Amino acid sequence: MMAASSSLSAMQLDALREVANIGAGHAATALSQMTGHSIMINVPALAVKGRDGIAELLESPHGEVAAVDVHMVGDLTGQTLLVFTHEAAKRLSGLLTGRPSEAGELNVLERSAVQEVGNILASAYLNALSQIVGGVLLPTPPRVYTGPGARVVGEAAARGPGSDPVLSINTRFTLEDGPEIRGTFLVLPDDESLARMLTALRV
C-alpha cells in the first residue's frame, strides 16, 4: 500500500490538480447550461492524506455536512465524495433551484439539487481522467448522506476500495458576481488506479 504523504511529489500533485481543473471546467459548463446562469468552479488547492486522516480534510469535521458519494467503475476503480457543510448545501441548492432555502434539514428538492451537483462534478472529473488515461470510466448512481462530517465521510470511505491515499480537492462555486460556495471534493482511487493515473500523466 502507498504511503499517502511520501508517495506523491509536488510535480505529481500539480498534475493531478490540472486534471481536477479540467474536470471543474467541464462541470461549470454543465451547471451553467442547466441553470441558465454563469457558474464558475475553481480548484485553488489539492492536498493528500492517508485514509485514517480523511476527516481532517473537511472544513468542519464535527459539523453537519451533506456528502454525495459516487463510485467509479471501469478501467479505473475508486470513489469520489463531494462534501458541503449544511449551510453551503442549503445555499447551493437555492442557487440551483431558484428558491430560498428554509431552516432545518435538507428537503427532498434540496437533496436532489446537491446530488445532481455531485453527479455532474464526479462525471466531469471521470471524463477528464478517461481522456488522459484512456479506456472507459463510469460513475455509479450518486447517493447523498447527511450527518456529522467525520462520521459521514468515514462511513462512506469504508464502503470504498479501502486504499490510500485520499486526494482532497478544494472546490469553490461562484455564481457570476454572487457569493462563493466552498466544498471539498475527495477522490479515493485504489492503489492500482492511482499508479495508472500517474503513469498516464507521466509524473
TrEMBL record:
GO biological process, one term: chemotaxis
Keyword Hydrolase tagged: yes
InterPro entries membership: CheC, CheC-like_sf, CheZ_family_phosphatases
CheC-like protein domain: residues covered: 11-46, 110-145
Entries under Pfam families matching the protein: CheC (PF04509)
Annotated keywords: Chemotaxis, Hydrolase
GO molecular function: hydrolase activity
Superkingdom of this protein's organism: Bacteria
Protein name as it appears in the record: Chemotaxis protein CheC -- inhibitor of MCP methylation
